[in-house]
Amino acid sequence: MSANQKDKEITQVESKIVIAPKSVPRKLNLALAVIALAQLMVVLDTAIVNVALPSIQRSLHFNPTDLEWVVNAYTIAFGGLLLLGGRTGDMFGRRRMFIIGALLFTTGSLAGGLANSSTFLIIARAAQGVGGAILAPTALSLLAQTFTEGKERNRAFGVYSAVSAGGGAVGLLLGGIITNYFSWRWIMFVNVPIGLLLAFAAPRVLVRSEGRPGRLDLPGAVTVSAGAMLLVYGLSRAAVHGWSDSTTVATLAASFVLLVTFVAIEARGRFPLMPLGIFGNRNRSGAYALSLAVGAALSGLLFLLTLFLQNVLGFSPLQAGFAFLPTALGIVVGAGLTSRLIGRVGPRVPMTTGTLLAATGMFWLSAITPRASYASDVLGPLVILAVGLGMTFVATSVVAISGVKPNESGLASALLNVGRQLGGSLGIAIMGTIAATVTRDQLATGPLTHAAVNSALTAGFSSAFVAAGIFAIGGFVATFILVRHRQGPAVASPPVEAEVAA
User: Do 255 and 136 share a domain, yes or no?
Assistant: First the structure.
């Protein structure tokens, strides 16, 4: 090789090094704010709608049996397409797909606010779910790509995890306020300026990454999306119609067949949608298992505790929303504490400690009575539970992304979200069935007085909260077995400059 050729190559490399950092956000706090806001918008959307369901039913004349689709249309599309959404970010560029997801979510929100029929609203909610399935995993991937491993990334994960874990509680509060003082339509409209802001800010503050070569695994995408959608629908249906319902059984069986087929396709495919090797890291597998367990416990608990506060203690929707405010604050405390300590103590300590705190809060809540006081019987368990959740959310997010190859960060992020989403559907289905069964059995033994109904409802909720505690203990066991005391040697992520220049 001549000296002139060598000089030319050196010049080309230097030019890349100089040019590449222009795509790196100078103000990392702005990038974190955009990513956290996107995650908050996605997480809020399920909880915020729950409070407004009675108003939506009256306004659009929903049949009682169809009302559940206002929630299910979003959760089924979101949970079913998460893996595909995460992979599109890896293949076509994360920032590009982040913007597309934000705009699709915004469009669905606008259509939902303008809906003049139940069918139109359900379609709009499904569009929101598709947008969320693209937005959520790409947001987490962008966070990992923007912040280097160590103290900087741990702090960012603390903020992100606080938003993720506290979003459900904040959604209940905002849903109560908006429904009480404005209209249910503003629950949809409020996303429009947020989504437009995200789409406007993303090209200016987020790292640009090119897509990776390869082909989309269409057979894998079809089988996993259909299987996950049927699984979420089957679990959601079980919460309403019971586990013995023929449609529920058929749906869950079809889901099982499709998901087994998906695993077989991925094991043999040349360009798999989900390379099975991603589960080879024990810490990461433990994080996914804990995410599933905590998602089940948290979603089921929030759903049933809201009913207990309103149907037994007589809280208004607005009061019930404010009752969960300490949960959001406790999560912020737990997340902040963990983001500072995880670099020194490793992931296992906050994961196990946080899960035990969450389980303690759930078992404590199971001691409720029809004459319970919020201050003495609900507030304390919620605070302990919230601190534990903040710790586990940060630790699982850090572990799930740490050391992942750049072209698989979207997949790793999607799997974490899949665990939380499917866990949430599973928790609501199982805990809802337990609560309904215990309540029905108690009501069958005596007269239907007001006191008897409250006692039976409370017994059902109490039994369900015990199940939530058991879910959390299951997550603790999985963490204790799988997660090492310290992170193993992480696969060093290539510099952002190299990603941009690729």
Answer: no
Q: How far apart are CA 97 and CA 89, in angstroms?
A: 6
**Domain boundary residue among 227, 245, 272?**
272
Q: Say how many C-beta atoms besides its own lie within 10 A of residue 264's C-beta.
A: 12
Total number of domains in the chain = 2
Single residue among 242, 272, 302 that ends a domain in this structure: 272
Q: pLDDT tens track of the chain, all 502 residues?
A: 554 554 444 444 434 433 333 444 447 788 888 888 888 888 777 777 877 777 788 888 877 656 777 877 887 788 778 778 877 877 788 888 899 999 999 999 999 999 988 889 999 999 998 998 888 888 878 887 787 766 777 777 777 777 776 676 677 777 778 877 788 888 889 889 999 999 998 888 887 766 566 666 778 778 888 887 788 778 777 767 777 888 889 998 998 999 899 888 878 767 777 777 767 778 888 888 888 888 888 878 877 888 888 888 888 777 877 888 888 788 888 888 888 888 788 888 888 899 999 999 999 999 998 888 888 889 999 999 989 988 888 888 888 777 767 666 666 777 777 777 778 777 877 888 888 888 888 887 767 788 888 888 898 999 999 999 999 999 899 888 888 755 443 433 333 333 332 2
Is position 360 within any domain? yes
The angle that helices 28-60 and 282-311 make with each other, rounded to 10 degrees, is 40
Looking at the fold, whether 313 and 450 belong to one and the same domain comes out as yes
Residues 359 and 489 in one domain: yes
What is the C-alpha to C-alpha distance for residues 383 and 361, in angstroms, rounded to an integer? 8
Token digits for 414? Answer: 């999607």
The helix/strand/coil state of 76 is helix
Closest CA to 159 of 336, 389, 353: 336
Q: Do residues 388 and 497 share a domain? A: yes
In a domain, 398, yes or no: yes
205 neighbors 123 (Cβ within 8 angstroms): no
The answer on 227 and 208 residing in a single domain is no
Are 472 and 362 in contact by the 8 Å Cβ rule? The answer is: yes
